[in-house]
Recover the amino acids of this structure.
């Protein structure tokens, strides 16, 4: 690979493909000049679109595929017939070292199945997790798993915590992120056994995070911690509840600002302030969920994202690729394993550097 | 009992007890003239407060208790020593037929344990569930379980659906409420086995609800259905996520309306419209969660509720008591049992009337 950053795209995924994919790539390219793209999909649709974006056209390669994965295609079927689809090929290009990351929109289940099958999980990770940024009153936090695994055991949760902390260090730039497990109360006696066990394990291990114990649903919006860890069922419900609540309030706000002449005048004056709030809450500006724990970077964009939203997802891919996410996770997994299994390994942390002394047992 | 409606109160529960309990009772009494109260707690604190509310004073009886349950007391300990506490006595008065319902603030775990122990679950209900109204863009919906049961099986979920539908018919006044199970997708192949099985059962049975299948986290705020059914872990996270997101947006909105002279002027003009939105989202106006499925009515108020909030919880108690919630649930349970177990029972619904034909097996 050259010093350029190469991102592969599935041009055919998402509700408004390939238009928003191409437009999104063009927006991302304007921001990051060393960006290159490999674009998979139907060239008869892609090539004419590229004429609108001459700069993008000069830094991308279009690779034609006949097959695309539809939005409703079952993961099992995608796995059987989808490896030579635009989605499968975009992931394969990461596996082959041709691209630093793949950005895909649309069918999440198919993405997950193909990404897991083609890239496999990292050593030490049992199951990948879907992680994303969410808006909070303090800025942004990371939440995972957002739906890759409906049921999770204690080891999954501990691994999610490690991966989430690596995400926060990479994208939010926090050196030692605060991490908590989502629970129905903050007391140690609450929650399922998996949660209680994971809590105990995270309190004992020595990894690059500031583990805070439990947080509750209202702690998400408050931004209580940098990383919220949960199983894929709860995480999926929670992130969609955040989105749904924000949408509900926005629609009620809109209605109530239209209800009288006074409120209409008010809305005119407050317009630009309300717009900046709207931007902070707009899912497009937090777009780009990462399949964490794979041997390669795959970023999922919302199927309904705008071109700005798709560009945000490409932005997440760039952050991840440039900041050695995988390396961060591997190092923490090593630390985890030596703290948990490693009778005879003593670790000390000094100014961020981990000093390790291995004491071998004498026979 | 007389034609008066009698509500028993634990005056000592909640963050600002006994003040807000007494003030809340006074507000509720102003709205509903046939209301009477039995107030349990420390009379040296309660009696002086009552002098401020002469109307309330004339329609309540104060019953002194030495013991109160603290906010942090473990459920097991509350069960051992709490039966003669103000909380325990308030529940006992429902059991003894002295009060139509008890309204309690504070320690949810202790309330649950004592209510379950003293009142026992209704025939046909394996576990009680905590249900409450939540604000949506269409008005209000019912959600349950909000935290009584961390893990739930298919039967629990089916029973929750029945209880939630009865809640909606009683409090929202919907004749045939729409009901859905909260899931990570709307397709039938998504979710845990318990959810899939409960979905299948609810599709088959003939009860007074319009069962819609699955809904997702964003369906809550959209008000997609009248009743959202889920396990206590997910429900607790979801309702707290709604609250947390609303709080986050309110604080960001407040900040953004202060950021410039223009936005300050706008806020002045739009003030009353914004206030009515604030009221719709204020948890105090949706206060009053019901422990469903017990042989008696127990309503939980938020520990941090205002006196207005506490009055809302009393309002829920009144709705429930006046509209025969328990009768509605019992009838649906009978229908459920005859549809599920009843080989040989055929049901047909005609203009809302259930026609039942029992076909006995011949020997």
């Amino acid at each position: 690979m050259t010093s350029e950053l190469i991102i592969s795209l599935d041009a055919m995924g998402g509700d408004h493909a390939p238009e928003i994919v191409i437009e999104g790539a063009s927006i991302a390219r304007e921001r990051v000049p060393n960006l290159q793209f490999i674009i998979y999909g139907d060239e008869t649709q892609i090539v004419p679109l590229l004429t609108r974006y001459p700069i993008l056209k000069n830094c991308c390669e279009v690779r034609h595929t006949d097959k695309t994965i539809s939005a409703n295609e079952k993961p099992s079927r995608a796995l059987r017939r989808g490896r030579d689809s635009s989605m499968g090929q975009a992931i394969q290009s990461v596996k082959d070292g041709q691209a630093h990351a793949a950005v895909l929109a649309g069918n999440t289940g198919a993405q997950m199945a193909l990404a897991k099958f083609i890239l496999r999980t990292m050593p030490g990770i049992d199951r990948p997790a879907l992680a994303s940024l969410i808006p909070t009153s303090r800025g942004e936090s990371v939440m995972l798993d957002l739906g890759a695994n409906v049921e999770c055991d204690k080891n999954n949760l501990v691994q999610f915590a490690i991966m989430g902390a690596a995400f926060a260090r990479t994208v939010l730039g926090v050196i030692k992120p605060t991490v908590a497990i989502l629970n129905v109360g903050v007391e140690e006696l609450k929650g399922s056994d998996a949660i209680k066990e994971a809590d105990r394990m995270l309190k004992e291990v020595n990894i690059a995070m500031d583990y805070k114990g439990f947080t509750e649903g209202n702690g998400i919006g408050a931004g209580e911690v940098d990383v919220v860890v949960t199983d894929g069922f709860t995480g999926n419900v929670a992130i969609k509840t955040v989105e749904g609540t924000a949408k509900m309030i926005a629609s009620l706000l809109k209605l109530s600002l239209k209800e009288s002449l006074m409120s209409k005048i008010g809305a005119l004056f407050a317009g630009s302030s309300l717009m900046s709030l709207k931007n902070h809450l707009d899912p497009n500006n937090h777009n780009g969920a990462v399949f964490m724990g794979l041997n390669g970077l795959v970023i999922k964009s919302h199927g309904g994202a705008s071109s700005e939203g798709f560009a945000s997802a490409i932005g997440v891919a760039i952050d991840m690729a440039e900041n050695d996410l995988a390396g961060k996770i591997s190092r923490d997994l090593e630390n985890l394993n030596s703290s948990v299994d490693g009778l005879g390994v003593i670790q000390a942390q000094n100014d961020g550097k981990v000093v390790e002394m291995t004491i071998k047992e004498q026979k």
About this structure: The CA atoms of residues 155 and 198 of chain A lie 7 Å apart. Chain A has two domains: 1-120+294-323, 126-286. The two ends of chain A are 49 Å apart (CA to CA).
